[in-house]
Design goal:
90 residues; mainly alpha; 2 domains; 0% strand; rod-shaped
Length: 90
């Protein structure tokens, strides 16, 4: 992607108007994709916050262990949060 981003300005400069707009959009899309890849998320902070509230929230809202697993919450995080496998929804 980075190689393509570096090539595009020269192509844009030489392109006819309609082709230019397509190349500009391609450049914008690639830059956005590269920026997204560079973003970092502090997952440990998010997990810590989740662990501190998950059990109570699950009880209050009737959310089961299986539902959390279905959306990708790791079993180790649910265990640390005290969300039991036997908890049923509703």
């Amino acid at each position: 992607m980075k190689a393509r981003v570096s090539e595009l300005p020269d192509e844009i400069a030489q392109a006819k108007p309609l082709k230019r707009v397509h190349l500009i959009q391609e450049l914008m899309d690639l830059e956005a994709e590269l920026a997204k890849e560079e973003e970092t998320v502090d997952i440990s902070g998010i997990e810590s916050d989740f662990i501190s509230i998950a059990s109570e929230y699950s009880d209050r809202k009737g959310i089961s262990y299986a539902a959390w697993r279905e959306v990708g919450v790791p079993a180790s995080v649910l265990k640390a949060a005290g969300v039991a496998r036997t908890r049923s929804a509703g």
